[in-house]
Design a protein that fits this description.
By secondary structure, the chain is mostly helical. It has 15 helices and two strands.
Length: about 325
């Protein structure tokens, strides 16, 4: 026996099923895909080779250096636990503090001075159209492509008593004005600072010039139409336009200034006295010459912490400027 249901009764049932099916489909559409919600292990597997390389050649050496800094070891006999005594010796040694002052001088010579002069030069070039800018970039960048050890040897010849600089001085001013620049306690550090400036200036200039290429010319035209002079135009248009390149330049040159090693090693050996001795040079002497591996490792850890703190400060300054 078949029961025929009234169409008016069947309609609400179909409507309810339709609404229920629509809700189910909507919920399925709203539910994120499993691959997006749960990425699984694939991203970690993809970064695993790079992380393994980084861990093997960066993290593990850092951890080993920290471990060695807590030991009293000459590299031959069995190491003995020293605790923080190596750090105390490093921080209370007058030679370490003198080396820290030398590093501050190199920060001025190879970081602050090149960046400042290169920024002004980049601003002057950005205001005008100069032909042969590619060739100028090549000329500026050329000193940076030369190994700093080669640069040090070349400038050592220039600074020598019978070098090119003293030959010119002898010709113009006479024999009494000839100076042994690298042997003078007052002139050795400025002489090396000039070399560091010369080596880093081209690199920073090319970096900042590349940043000025992205500044629209309309900004300079608008600034001039508003009556802005060269100085106001420099601070209102050029400096904000190269902020990222300026940050990268400061970070890289700051790191290079603190890790200065081959320049004083190949020219003055840290002399006269400790006038040009850097922390990296002290670390080299402690580890390879004096066989005080723990103390050298402690200086390396302290230098790394100082570099990290300086880079953090630079990034924070530029982050606050970005708002």
């Amino acid at each position: 026996m078949t029961t025929v249901m009234d169409p008016e009764v069947r309609a609400p049932a179909r409507a309810r099923r339709a609404v229920g099916g629509g809700r189910a489909r909507a919920s399925r559409r709203a539910r994120p895909a499993r691959g997006i919600d749960r990425p699984g292990a694939w991203p970690y597997l993809l970064i695993l080779p790079g992380f393994a390389f980084y861990a093997a050649f960066v993290l593990l050496p850092i951890m080993e250096t920290v471990r060695l800094s807590l030991l009293d070891w000459n590299g031959l006999t069995a190491p003995e636990w020293a605790g923080l005594s190596n750090y105390v010796r490093a921080l209370t040694d007058d030679a370490t503090w003198q080396a820290g002052l030398v590093s501050l001088s190199f920060i001025v010579f190879s970081c602050l001075a090149p960046v400042s002069v290169a920024l002004v030069l980049a601003g002057l070039i950005a205001r005008t159209r100069i032909r042969g800018l590619t060739f100028l970039r090549f000329v500026y960048f050329l000193p940076y492509t030369i190994a700093l050890a080669v640069v040090a040897i070349a400038w050592r010849w220039l600074y020598a008593t019978d070098g090119t600089i003293n030959q010119v001085v002898r010709t113009i001013f006479g024999e009494e004005k000839v100076t042994a620049y690298l042997g003078d306690a007052d002139l050795a550090l400025p002489a090396l600072g000039l070399v560091a400036f010369w080596a880093m200036f081209g690199f920073v200039t090319v970096m900042l010039l590349s940043g000025t290429q992205h500044i629209p010319r309309e900004l300079y035209d608008a600034a001039r139409s508003d009556g802005a002079g060269p100085i106001r135009e420099f601070f209102a248009v050029t400096v904000p336009g190269v902020r990222q390149e300026l940050r990268v330049s400061l970070v890289l040159t700051f790191i290079m200034a603190l890790r200065t090693f081959d320049l004083p090693l190949m020219t003055t050996q840290g002399g006269p006295g400790y006038k040009t001795t850097t922390p990296s040079l002290i670390m080299y002497r402690d580890v390879f010459l004096n066989m005080q591996i723990g103390r050298g490792a402690a200086i390396a850890v302290l230098l790394t912490l100082f570099v990290g703190a300086g880079v953090l400060v630079i990034n924070r300054l530029f982050r606050s400027e970005d708002g």
